[in-house]
Amino acid sequence: MNKDLGNKLRSLRQSYQLTQRQVSHQLKINHNTISSYENNKFRPNLKALYRLAKFYNVPLKELLSELK
Q: Could you list the residue ranges forming a coiled coil in this record (predicted)?
């Protein structure tokens, strides 16, 4: 699995100085899920990617490009 998406999600979260728990609370996603996305254990589905893109204020295309 490509590690770019997890690194991108971690970088975005850290740029907002947020913890995984804070992101999970805001998005109503289990914090273990956020961790799994960032550590490339699981790949978010399209709905989750959309919510993450909206939350981090980045175009969905930017996150999708990390899946190559």
A: none
